[in-house]
Design goal:
By secondary structure, this protein is α/β, with parallel strands linked by helices. The protein has four helices and seven strands, in the order βββαβααβαββ.
């Protein structure tokens, strides 16, 4: 399966598109826009800002579900005035490698 590299700018992390899965969301939404119809899942490797900066915007743009390990999920809401749940973005937490709603 081909992997598409989507480079980040400045201090933001890169993103990668693997099939219908976007890995990390620190890139500008405009960088993801050409792939918006392909993406239905966003997997965040961890909750550092350079990997999650635009997750809300990209998830809305692509109508994608967001997945992150349960130990990193609290980091998504601590920085934000509006937690992901308030924006109606589905954050599924990984536990032992399998999603658990």
């Amino acid at each position: 399966m081909p992997v598409t590299w989507i480079p980040g700018r400045d201090f933001f992390g890169n993103a990668y598109l693997i099939g219908n899965v976007l890995v990390d969301a620190g890139v500008l939404p405009s960088a993801v826009e050409p792939y918006r119809d392909k993406i239905d899942t966003i997997v965040l490797t961890h909750s550092h800002f350079d990997h999650t900066a635009y997750v809300k915007e990209i998830a809305h743009l692509c109508h994608a579900g967001v997945y992150i390990h349960s130990l990193d999920a609290p980091g998504l809401t601590r920085r934000s005035a509006q937690p992901l749940a308030a924006l109606r973005l589905p954050v599924t937490r990984y536990s032992s490698g399998s999603p658990s709603g």
